[in-house]
């Protein structure tokens, strides 16, 4: 305390000068219109500059969130474009137009946008790494899609990154159906061309045509129904002759894959839980 008092006593004239300067400035700008207008304009400029600088800083640090929103909007726009192209194809019978995409299928689900940071295509067991993990809401067994179709299923989720088993993996097995015909099968990839895969176990009584589209069936908690898989190129008999095997050209170009979205499968899981509960209750009633 004594040191503080000594400091104030030693430099008291500077504090008196500062106080008098403040008082004089207040009197000058308050009671003189010209000086007051000059100060007001300068203050506005300084304040505006500071606010502009603050806005630029906040904008810079929010770029990641803006990019995520733009990625998700681009996905929806691409789906809508494909939808319009498919309607035009149906009206004009022009098969060169793009097929209908999954806009209606995904609009009720929460999509988590992500970027591909690693994509291996030269192995029977290819894996994809994306830059989103559990901290972003991604969890194991969630479906992954892009603007044109199915990509794969989350196999392992860490805090900030996740590993995806894509369609181009020998362990991938996704339930599919022929669009508009409700004949079911399972999508498999046997290696080789990364643009081709097979749909197995399609029943022999199924009626369809070449170049019709295959889509997800929705009979799992991973993908909702209606996500594009690919179009039928060839039809083969299964080895046992009891079903068809369809060769499909995949809708997703894995060699150019950059932006994807992870489907939050909580709504699908809840729906399946309700169905299982209903089935269990029916079984209990039958026993009684």
From TrEMBL:
The organism of origin for this protein: Hallella bergensis DSM 17361
Task: Tell me which NCBIfam families the record gives.
Answer: PRK13922.9-3 (NF010532)
- Presence of keyword DNA-binding: no
For this chain, the family text in UniProt reads: Belongs to the MreC family.
Q: What is this protein called?
A: Cell shape-determining protein MreC
Q: Name one GO biological process term.
A: regulation of cell shape
**Any GO CC annotation of this UniProt entry:** plasma membrane
Say which domain of life the source belongs to: Bacteria
InterPro entries from the xrefs? Cell/Rod_1 (IPR042177), Cell/Rod_MreC_2 (IPR042175), MreC (IPR007221), MreC_beta-barrel_core (IPR055342)
Q: Which residues form a coiled coil?
A: none
Keywords, ordered alphabetically: Cell shape, Membrane, Transmembrane, Transmembrane helix
């Amino acid at each position: 305390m004594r040191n503080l008092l000594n400091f104030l006593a030693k430099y008291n004239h500077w504090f008196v000068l500062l106080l008098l300067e403040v008082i004089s400035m207040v009197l000058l700008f308050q009671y003189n219109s010209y000086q007051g207008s000059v100060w007001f304009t300068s203050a506005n400029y300084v304040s505006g500059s500071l606010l502009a600088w603050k806005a630029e800083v906040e904008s810079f640090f929010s770029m990641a969130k803006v990019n995520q929103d733009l990625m998700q909007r681009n996905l929806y726009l691409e789906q809508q474009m494909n939808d319009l192209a498919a309607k035009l194809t149906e009206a004009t019978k022009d098969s060169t137009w793009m097929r209908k995409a999954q806009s209606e299928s995904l609009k009720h689900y929460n999509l988590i946008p992500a970027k591909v940071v690693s994509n291996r295509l030269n192995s029977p067991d290819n894996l994809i790494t994306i830059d989103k993990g559990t901290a972003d809401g991604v969890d194991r067994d969630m479906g992954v899609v892009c603007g044109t179709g199915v990509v794969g299923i989350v196999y392992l989720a860490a805090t900030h990154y996740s590993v995806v088993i894509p369609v181009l993996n020998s362990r991938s097995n996704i339930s599919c159906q022929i669009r508009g015909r409700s004949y079911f099968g399972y999508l498999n990839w046997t290696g080789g061309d990364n643009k081709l895969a097979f749909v197995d176990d399609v029943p022999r009584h199924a009626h369809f045509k070449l170049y019709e589209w295959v889509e997800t069936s929705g009979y799992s908690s991973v993908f909702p129904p209606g996500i594009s898989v690919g179009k039928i190129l060839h039809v083969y008999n299964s080895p046992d002759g009891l079903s068809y095997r369809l060769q499909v050209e995949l809708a997703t170009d894995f060699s150019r894959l950059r932006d994807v979205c992870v489907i939050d499968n909580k709504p699908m899981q809840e729906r399946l839980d309700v169905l299982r509960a209903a089935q269990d209750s029916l079984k209990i009633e039958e026993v009684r």
